[in-house]
Fold each of these.
Amino acid sequence: MVISQAEQGERLHGLDALRAGALLLGVVLHASLSFVPPQIWIVADDSRSIGAAWLFFAIHLFRMTAFFLIAGLFAHRMLTRRGWLAFAKDRVVRIAGPLAVFWFPVMAGIVTALVWNAHANGLVTPGAPPPPPPTYDWTNFPLTHLWFLWMLTLFYAVVLIVRAVLSVLDRKGWAGPVVDRITGALIGPWTPAALAAPLALALWLDPKWIAFFAVPTPDAGVIPNTSALVGFGLAFGLGFVLDRRRDLLDRIAKASPLFLSVALVSGVAAYVLAGGPSIAPMAKPTAGKALSAAVTAVAIYASALAAMGLCLRFASGHSPARRYLSDASYWIYIVHLPLVMLAQVWVQDWAGPWWVKLIGVSAGVFAVCLASYELLIRHNFMGRWLNGRRVPWRNRPAPALVPAE
């Protein structure tokens, strides 16, 4: 089902579904890491398979690019509806606030899992003094998986700065129509290639780029790497200007089969060119690296646009279950990583195929996170804080009144 122009002023349920899916797939993504050969994660399960590597690569290729694409679109929508001051306050409270509040407990949970894993694998000598604690500064500060909140904060700040500058330099509003025409010309079968060009250049010039991990995750240090700024920044910017031209969402939805075909072909090629699950960086800017960077960049944007178009086609109707998961996804993503790591340590020596243990870890973490969301978050001030609204508990029906005789 393609979204119609008459529906564009209403809630975009398909994009809600994509945003939720991008966050929820993070649980499966991180759970798969312990099953990838060779060891690329701190926890290494006894049962590992190349199938887990393909699963990780497929999810990682599009997930966060699609998320930032949707985040940019929703940012423009909120800024237009509420104004810059209310927008800034909301983003500080609901994006920067959770980063500040949840970073320490999340980090404590991760450290707990690391210590347990070290003991479980005999990496700690009984009675030996503990190693010195690491020292952190602005160049290596561990943002963990909450890095996306920091990136969003930076992008929102850029949006407000650009808006302030344009309000001074473009008092007659000439920039808006020009941007709209450029956006219209950008959206078409050529969109993945057009977006891929600057990202491919950034990846090619990055001496630390590991092709298997596509866009390098900016999870260490407060200044994101150039490839992440380019890759996710382009997605966020495209989403931002797309909200000005919501008619183009129809075009993306109709082109989703083409985007999906391009994503499948280029994604498989990118995996092969990366050499499979390898953590060896492509240090030198060679011709082979240029090819790998170009193919990977095309796959990243083609897959993100395919996901967007398919959700607009097939998930644009209202669904109470999807809406619930959309609300819950933010909380689930914030708290899931320590739970995933603890579960990985717990099952790493169990007998059984990797995919059974992967399903068990993912399902168990989902169950715990959903239960905590329902009992601790959704129906109180935490729900209002994270989701912008508190859903009251369902009240029992009032007893019927008996008329007095």
Amino acid sequence: MKQLETDVVVIGAGTAGLSAYRNAKQSTDNVLMIEAGQYGTTCARVGCMPSKLLIAAAEAAHSVTEAPKFGVNTTAPQIDGKAVMARVRSERDRFVGFVLEAVDELPEQDRIKGYARFLDANRVQIDDHTVITAKRFVIATGSRPNIPGFFQAFGERLIINDDVFDWQDLPESVAVFGPGVIGLELGQALHRLGVKVKLFGVGGSIGPLTDPQIQDYANTVFGEEFYVDSDAKVSDMQQVGDKAQLTYIDHDGKPQTEQFDYVLAATGRVPNVDKLGLENTGIELDERGVPLADTHTMQCGDSHIFIAGDASNQIPLLHEAADQGTIAGQNAGRFPDVRNGLRRAPIAAVFSDPQIAMVGESFKQLNERYGKCGCFAIGEVSFENQGRSRVMLKNKGYMHLYAEQGSGLFLGAEFIGPAAEHIAHLLAWAVQNKMTVPQMLDMPFYHPVIEEGLRTALRNLNARLKFGPDIVQHCMECGPGA
């Protein structure tokens, strides 16, 4: 067994791991990075980038379908599934290639392949070939799809989103379980590319939304386009020949039995920490076996072990993984000089159509923090009659903004609508800069733009905070359809 000693070991070479490695290197040259699987981040291989490639194809097809509404008549789009998937795979591989190039630039002696397991708080064993003794560790092992056991009844017809991006052609039909970010994005995209899609969920939730009114609106909007049941009753799951068969209660309360080419399980992800031997380290774990870590330092208790990215089970987004990796790497490199790192305002987006976005504190978090004291106000706007949105036939959307009573401090937002990914950035900057609603209303708004809908919601919120008058309907100084 090979024996090595070093200052810092980073377990995992994804977004968080690469960030941790580079930042630990700022304090010491003695950093080793361990990776068991293929190099290339979750985002590049099976996450945000290939999914957006599929969505881009779906948007192109949908724009042709919608063209007659503008008086632009054309034939129905002809979907070449093989060409669609060839571009998805090709561009996906290109993005992965960028990551691989970055990894190849790292010193070869710093990279070790294999599965790591803690022998104790200062030693990890890599497969059956190496034991490394280190002074500090960063756990950045990512996550994997969570597939409930009963889905195994579908046999080889069961897939996860990773499998979708290796398809050579589009199937005829897919049942999607899980109307969260992945399920909603892929389900709608496949539907727009001509695949028969039915999307099933449990409990009525859709996307990451927690605000009941925004949830209801989202369920209605997506349900108008394709079959969505976010609180489904499904039974009799099995593989029949080369099909997946299931029985469900439809919207009319009648049982339906259907067969699909595939069942896509988009039922969440779990941190890859269960095989690390964390019980040998002495650090405190939660009920799921995930290390408890300080969100500002990424330190596990007062130990020399840090955690970052999806493995931390905090916020599973690429930019958060990069930030956490930076904090964990810096602190592991200069330990015991542990410092708080920059944690940005929370921001999340779903690239459906209409898009979904959440910023700052969610409705659920605010209710838990403020209770029923009425200490926060809600401003709202519908995008259905918003001028610029109607011009583009993108006028589906509903927004809630939240602010603190008394101070007027802007706290967060949940919304569905056009350009949500861009509006979310404006709102996240407002949260991070601790702006009040009156200060936000002092910012410039051009005409005609979708952001005028945001201004309407801010004015509504300002009135409910009692900082200004009620909204003037049909305010012509704002421009028509503002």
Amino acid sequence: MRAPMTARARWATVLLGVLSPLVVLGCTPSAGPANTTVALTAHGTCSSLPPGPAQPPAGAVVVDPAVTGDLQAKTKASPPGTTFWLAPGGHTLGTDEYDQVAPKDGDRYVGAPGAVVDGRDTNRYAFTGKASRVTIENLTVTGFRAPDNEGVVNHDSGADWLIQSNLVTDNRGAGMMAGARQVMKNNCLKDNGQYGLNGCCGDVTDIVLEGNEFVGNNADDVESKYPEGCGCTGAMKFWEVDGADIRGNWIHYNRGPGIWADTNNNDFLIENNLIENNDGTAIFYETSYNAIIRDNTLKRNNLVGGREFVDRDDNFPVAAIYISESGGEPRVPARTDKIDIYGNDLTDNWSGVTLWENADRFCNSPANSSTGTCTLVVKDVGKCSPPGILTDPLRSDCRWKTQNVQIHDNRFAVDPKSIGCQAMCARMAVLSNYGSSPDWSPYQGDLVPKAITFDQRNRWYDNHYVGPWTFVTHDASQVVDQLAWQGGAYRQDQGSTFAVGGGN
């Protein structure tokens, strides 16, 4: 257990914690908010990835870039556990869209300096199949055309892969898929069409994402291809992942969210990341469980998304950290039984933290956009219908709850003028809508707004604020000032400090 720290002491240590893994990767993050646009406009260099060996490792099979398909052919001809050394140059896989490399258990692919696996805008996938313990390192992987919601490296989510020190860039779909116990270290995932990384669906556990750079992903603006949107874009997205350590990454200039966990994820540790200049929310934790979000630095996130809400006269409190129908649940095993948000430094983002729960979104509800899924404490969607859902325990267990969220020892600073904001960009929120659908819903009226605001153990305390902060409570129409937020019925932010016009 860590000894408790004051708000001022904790946020002062955050930058030291977040910069060290980035220096190892070789990234050059901006010095601060004033320099951010100038320093990062070029989307990061990704130029300091460690080079691969200039000579083949002992016993390695040499892959010749001059021979089309040599990588596939030698993989097929070699036994499991073979090391392949890709010589300098562009390695191509053939002219069919399904030409791809299918590793065997324990295979290792290591690139010499200048080794590129190039899909030439023809092949869909680079590395596929269910082999385990595969290593991919020191390669550039580019030019592959994976369809939406599919990926290029580890397309089939093989288990126990080690993917490190690669540049995965200018691919369609996701640059990389996650598999069980996959370790991804010191990679650069840049300008991929949909995601840098996609983790899905139900058998992905205990992944590690450390020291990577995610920049310019969702380059194809995939969201705009769907009339109603798809909720399927950003730097990375996770679905039904149980156990993820996301630490020491630099996540910047992506179109859409930075880190997005959507639907029945559990046991996430998000720490020591630098997340800045993403168009959408920095951290989006949706219909999921049990997470620690600590010691991250967030700068200038969600400015595009926030302005879009203002432009259409929507007063919903979008924010840098968005907790949506997610909370701590002791019946779902994890390292914590809450969502614990602490030690983070947020500067000039569009607002701070929003805790939201859609009263109409529950198992078997038309408003459940995660079609066919149910909460992890019920699982069987069919149970969540009348008459069973009308009484406990199903009345309680059939809805994802924003509960047991603790927000403490963070620094929240915003200067609206510096981000070109006229209104609604310095808000904290805990709210719901009034339940109305379907007509048999047991959550109609203000049952859920009252619960999330007063009864579900959601607490702010010991934070430090700089700027003209306001607070949205119960529903989007109720905005209160600091005194009302700290006093009366809410009793939030006990022990916190406020500097309206400046300070540290």
